[in-house]
Amino acid sequence: MNAVLDLLGATVISAFVTLMLMNVNNNLSVTASEQYMNTNTQQNMVALSDMLHFDLKNTGYRVTDSIKIVRAESERITVRGDFDNNGVVDSVKYYLGQTSELSNTPNPNDKPLYRVLNAATPVASNWGVTSMKFSYYDSLGNETTYRSKIRSFKIKLQIMSAFQYDGKYTYSSWEKLYKPRNLR
Length: 184
Hints:
The protein has one helix spanning 2-57, and strands at residues 69-72, 76-81, 90-96, 111-117, 124-137, 152-160, 171-178. It is of the alpha+beta class. It has one domain (9-183).
């Protein structure tokens, strides 16, 4: 009789240990998937912010006339400068499209980001951008809408993962104040 009780006790204990190991394995799998989504979203933000930084920090570079910022709106910007350092002044425009333009992604909130160099045909890129806002400031740091008075500008950007995991999207936010030397 004791042998049967020992055998039943060992079976119950081994079943609990097996269930605990399965639970740990499941938790590790969930954590790894969430970490992958977070890392992918962060990598997209870093690549996107590097691209934006390169263009926006060079606003007004080698522009000899007074039109260094062509368009300054809350959701789009067009700036001029010699971005490729070839002696020719270029213009670059950034703006977001509509969510309906990215119907091939499962995220209903992401929008295509357009970067248009000079008069090239706009090409949409999917970075997972859900929001992009610009604010413009004069020499005293006050917000302004007059392009000729803009001495600095701030960009606020938010991106989300294309897919959700466990009912949630991962997101990343980035904010940067630019004070290009060539706007002073």
